[in-house]
Design brief:
Largest sheet: 6 strands, antiparallel
Number of domains: 5
CATH class of the largest domain: Alpha Beta
Strand content: 15-25%
Number of helices: 14
Distance between the termini: 79 Å
CATH architecture of the largest domain: 2-Layer Sandwich
Shape: elongated
CATH topology of the largest domain: Beta-Lactamase
Strand order of the largest sheet: 7-6-11-10-9-8
Radius of gyration: 64 Å
Length: about 625
């Protein structure tokens, strides 16, 4: 960018032009003065000549007159002299010119006509001269002759050489212009030198300011009040330095806050009981807290910043379950967007059961990597096993006496000799023993499922006979309810265990009836599932509905919904947990939709059997 100081340069040029114009004005004044001087000399000379020629025109013959004109030729710088008579014809001329073909100039004719003197500065041949045209009469004062009624005898045209005069003027003009050019050139050189020095000084100040700011002195400012390019750059520099100062202060404060937050977070993570492992988006191990090191029995320092594959190889030497550890780990990471759980057992050196929750670090375009939250569940699993064992033992021990009570009470009810008051008590014993038997069956089912001892006999079966059997049973148990079945005749067969399917539908229909008002409708329907090649069974009621806050815990063990409408309804809270476990064992899924005070619908999706075969689709 070319830097200039416009105002001083304009002032310099203005003064130089003013000086040059003043010199030219003086020359013009001199030209005018010289012109007047030449005019006075010419008038004095012509006055003498005119008197003589007037006398010759009056008293002398034409030959004498021509001789007088010729004698005047070349006198006092005269370059041309022509005498015209009253009719405008040239009668005599100097330089021995042939005047026979000479034309009469218009200003000569006008002088004959009005008798006024005329002057000009250009001759007929183009040379520069002072021409004067004088009307002639028999009186010396020719300007008055025409006014006094004296006739004009002729006109005398005299041209005096003006070349010396113009040459002198030209020399003076050239001198003035040369002086002006030299003056401008000298002043320009001085101006450039001074401006360059001043500009360099200002640029040095700007450079010094930049170095000060670069060294960390963000409060430094460049003082430059000139309204030009350098001044604008200085102003922009000061503004930039001010913003940098503010940004640095903000950055320092942000760094301080982030440092405190990071320190707090590190302290929390370091002190938490759960292990945390983080892998960056380049699949390198980025973080592993001390709790994770203790849980896994690994020194994280040896793997930090290195590919996580090396960390996994070191961990695989300690994992005893599952046997196909790397395959299971790869499969779980493919489902990482759903935050899957991974359970495994390590020997470090004692047996330790660990539950890992896999998650994504960052969202969308801000993907930073993946992480795993590790939790030692050894004691919890041991307690669960003890609880399952206790439930299994207790259920088996209770089953025998309950069977006896249930059988003898049923036998007593069939006896005709039993009095009516006693019969009422026996009926109560029968119903309560039946309820206890159902609870024991639920506990035994749950125990078998958790222990992995629940066997399945999968086969292709039709849904309609199973549904008809269930509706017939519950129509007897709940005679005030309306049970409906909506199953198309062309519904494909299911691939399921008949006993377990009956157990699932029994639990769902029993809940639908218990949590519906009397004369409420319970409907079992089915259709082809969309997209997955299965069959979807729906059990719908018009009951109390399920509050939204209860939905996440609905399928957990021993969970029951507490509402005023359900205070008198008995149950263990195991039914839906058993339903979910059995459906998943048959490669299906279960979900629920519910609106409070309008009812609920449970959907069970199961695979469809191939036509004519004992295989699922």
């Amino acid at each position: 960018m070319k830097l200039t100081t416009k105002v001083p340069l304009i002032v310099l040029i203005t003064f130089t032009l003013a000086g040059t114009l003043s010199g030219l004005a003086l020359i013009l004044l001199q030209v005018k003065a010289n012109s007047e001087h030449y005019t006075k000399i010419g008038d004095a000379l012509v006055s003498i000549l005119v008197n003589q020629i007037e006398q010759d025109m009056v008293h002398s013959s034409p030959q004498v007159l021509k001789q007088s004109i010729n004698e005047l030729d070349g006198l006092a710088g005269i370059v041309e002299i022509v005498l015209y008579n009253a009719s405008g014809k040239a009668v005599a001329s100097g330089y021995s010119q042939d005047i026979s073909q000479k034309t009469t100039p218009p200003d000569v004719l006008e002088a004959i006509k009005d008798g006024h003197i005329r002057r000009s500065t250009l001759g007929e041949k183009g040379q520069r001269e002072f021409d004067t045209i004088y009307p002639l009469s028999n009186k010396t004062e020719c300007m008055r002759c025409h006014r006094d009624g004296q006739a004009v005898l002729g006109v005398l045209k005299i041209g005096i050489d003006a070349e010396p005069y113009y040459k002198a003027i030209g020399q003076q003009v050239n001198l003035v212009l040369l002086t002006g050019i030299l003056t401008v050139g000298t002043l320009m050189v001085i101006f450039v030198i001074v401006s360059r020095r001043l500009l360099l000084n200002r640029l040095k100040r700007l450079e010094f300011g930049a170095r000060r700011v670069a060294s960390g002195d963000y409060s430094f400012r460049v003082i430059d009040t000139r309204q030009d390019e350098v001044g604008a750059v200085s102003g922009a520099f000061n503004e930039m330095a001010g913003k940098v100062h503010d940004y640095i202060a903000l950055l320092k404060e942000t760094v301080r806050i982030r440092t405190e937050e990071r320190s707090t977070l590190d302290s929390i993570i370091a002190s938490m009981g759960e292990g945390l492992v983080v892998v960056d988006n380049q699949k390198n191990l980025a973080y592993c807290n001390s709790a994770a090191e203790q849980l896994l029995g690994l020194e994280a320092a040896a793997f930090l910043g290195k590919p996580v594959a090396a960390f996994n190889r070191g961990l695989s030497t300690r994992v005893v379950e599952p046997k196909d550890w790397e395959t299971v780990l790869t499969a779980k990471f493919k489902e990482i967007n759903t935050q899957p759980k991974l359970n495994f057992v390590v020997m470090v050196p004692e047996r330790r059961e660990i539950e890992a929750i896999l998650f994504v670090v960052g969202k969308g375009d801000q993907y930073l990597g993946t992480g795993a939250l590790l939790r030692d569940v050894t004691k919890e699993r041991e307690i669960d096993r003890m609880k399952t064992q206790f439930i299994s033992i207790a259920s088996h021990e209770l089953r025998t006496p309950l069977t006896i009570v249930y059988g003898f009470s049923e036998l007593l009810l069939t006896s005709r000799a039993l009095p009516q008051p006693d019969k009422e008590w026996v009926e109560r014993i029968y119903k309560e023993s039946q309820r206890l038997n159902n609870i024991v069956e639920d506990l035994l089912s749950l125990s078998r499922i958790e222990a992995g001892g629940q066997a399945l006999n999968l086969e292709a079966l039709s849904l309609q006979p199973v549904t008809t059997q269930i509706i017939a049973r519950f129509s007897t148990i709940y005679p005030s309810h309306n049970f409906n079945m909506v199953i198309p005749d062309d519904l494909p067969r299911l691939w399921a265990d008949p006993d377990r399917l009956i157990q699932v539908l029994t639990n769902l229909v029993d809940n639908a009836a218990k949590y519906s008002p009397k004369e409420g409708a319970v409907t079992i329907s089915a259709r082809r599932a969309d997209g997955n090649g299965g069959v979807e069974i729906a059990v719908a009621d018009k009951g109390f509905g399920i509050p939204p806050e209860e939905m996440p815990k609905l399928f957990t063990r021993f969970h029951r919904i507490h509402r005023p409408e359900s205070d008198g309804i008995r149950g263990t809270g195991l039914g839906l947990s058993i339903v979910k476990s059995l459906v998943e064992m048959m490669s299906g899924s279960v979900r629920v939709e519910s609106v409070v005070n309008r009812g609920s619908t449970f959907y069970v999706s199961l695979p469809m059997a191939k036509d004519g075969t004992g295989e699922k689709t």
